C-alpha cells in the first residue's frame, strides 16, 4: 500500500511546484533590471578598472622588489666591512619612506598644485572623502580612474628607489642616523617636488611638454646628483689610496643576482607606468624597448671594457645593463625599438666614461651610482628630444633627428637643467647641514675598526671574516 502512495505524493509535489513557478516567475523576471547599453558600458568600465588596478598593484610589487636588487648589488660591489651597513640602510629606507611619503611626500607630489611647483593638500591622505575613500579618480594631480590607495602604493615604490640610489654612492662611511635623516628629507621634499613638476597633471614642466615616461629624470637624475654631492662631501672610504679604478667587489655573485633582480623589476618600473592595460600595444612596445636598452647597454660595456683591459669584465657588464635601463626609462613609450638599441649602446659606453671621470675627480662612488643613474638619466631624457617618434610623443612632436626641430629637445634640455640645478643645490645644503651637526660622516673610530663593527656590531661573514682579521689588514 505504501509503495503505491509514494509516487502519488511525488506527482502532487511536482504539480504544486510547477504552479508556484508559473505564478511567480514572471514577477521575478519583471523585477530584474533590463540589460541596456548603459548598463553594459558601466559594467565594462568597472571591469577595466578592476583589471587596471590589478596591473598597477602587480607592477608596483615589482618596483618594490627592486629594493632587494639594490641591496644585493651594493652588498656584492662593496668591501666586506661595510655590507651589513648597506643592507640595513637599503632595508630601512623602504620602511622610513612609506611613512614619510604617506605624511608629506605624496601630497607635495600629487596634491592640488600651487603654481605648478608644489602640492598643497592630500597630506596623510586626509583630503580623501571619508565615505568614498575607495572610489576612483580622487587624486588631484593624477588623471586616472584608479583609487587613491593603489596610486599611492605605486608611487611610493618609486620614491623608495630615489633614496636607495644615493646610499650606494655614500656606502661605507655615512653615519647611520644621518642616512635616516637624508632619506626622510628626500622622500618628503626634494624627490616629490621634482615629481610634482613633471608628473603632476598641473606641474610646470609637464604642462610645457616635458617627456619623462617612467623616471630617467624624476627618479634617476635626482638620485644620481644627490648621490654625487653626498659622496663628494663625505670624502673617500678608509683605505682609498689608488685612484683610477673602483676597488674590487667582494662578491660578484651577489652583484649579479642584484642586477638581474633590478632588470626584472624594471618590467614593473616602465610598463607599469602606463597605469592601465587599455593600450596593450603600448605595453608591448615599452617592454620591448626596456629589454633592448638593457641588452645593448650590457654588450656595449662588455666589449668596450674588453678593448680597454683585455678582460671580460663582469662588473662593468652589470653596470652597462643598468645604464641601458636607466637611459631607456624616459623614452620607452615615445621611441621606436631601433632607437632603444641606440640609447642602450650609448648608455653602456657612457657609464664607463662616467666612472673614469668620477675616479679622476677623486670622488669615491663604490657602485658607480652617478655614472649609472645620474649621467644616463640625463642622457635618456635628452634622447627623447633627439629620437622621439611623433606618433608616440604626448604632443605629437618629433625629435630633432626625425625632423622635428628643436621644440621637443629644447623642453627636454630645460627640464634636465632645472632638475639638476635644484637637486645639486638642495643636496649641498642638506648634506652640509648634516656635516655641520656631525651626522654626515661616521665617527672616525669606524674608519679604524670598520663601519659594520662600529655601527652594528656585526659582519656579513662572521665565520669567514671576523673583526680581528680586519684589524690585521
UniProtKB/TrEMBL annotation:
Q: Where in the cell is it found?
A: Cell membrane; Membrane
Question: Domain Ammonium transporter AmtB-like, which positions?
Answer: 55-459
Q: Give yes or no: UniProt keyword Transport.
A: yes
Question: What are the transmembrane regions?
Answer: 55-78, 90-110, 148-168, 180-199, 219-236, 248-269, 281-304, 316-336, 342-358, 370-388, 408-434
Looking up InterPro entries in the UniProt record yields:
Ammonium/urea_transptr, Ammonium_transpt, Ammonium_transpt_CS, NH4_transpt_AmtB-like_dom
Q: In its keyword annotation, does this UniProt entry include Transport?
A: yes
Q: Which PANTHER family match?
A: AMMONIUM TRANSPORTER
UniProt-recorded name of the protein: Ammonium transporter
According to its UniProt entry, this protein's organism is: Dolichospermum circinale CS-537/01
